[in-house]
Amino acid sequence: MTGNKTTYTQVGDAFAAHIQPLGDKYGQADMGRTGKTFRMFTLTEVRIGDRITDQTTTKYECYGLAKQKFRGKTHYEALLRSA
């Protein structure tokens, strides 16, 4: 990586997901950042550190992830922090 480290490029296609808030208060994050916490459910594989933009252009960063199985189907539960 060289140059501006805050520039991101889109590397994936749009995918279906359900994002819901875990609370209405802002919490402290790494490096003094603050943001609200959300949980996302999706069938698409996501990774910690992924940045996700929803249809209203709200930006999130994935900081926790669990791969779950329910009734024989796999889905992902991700913890997101608003960026």
Describe the protein.
The mean pLDDT is about 80. The chain is mainly beta. It is globular and about 45 Å long. The strands form two sheets. It has a five-stranded antiparallel beta sheet with strand order 1-4-7-6-5, with no helix packed on it. Strands 2-3 form a two-stranded antiparallel ribbon. It is built from no helices and seven strands. About 0% of the residues lie in helices and about 50% in strands.
Rounded to the nearest angstrom, the distance between the terminal CA atoms is 21 Å
Number of strands: 7
Question: Can you write the helix and strand succession as a string?
Answer: EEEEEEE
Shape: globular
Q: Bin the helical content.
A: under 10%
Mean pLDDT: 81
Strand order of the largest sheet: 1-4-7-6-5
**Computed Rg:** 14 Å
Strand content: over 45%
Instruction: Please report the number of helical segments.
Output: 0
Structural class assignment: mainly beta
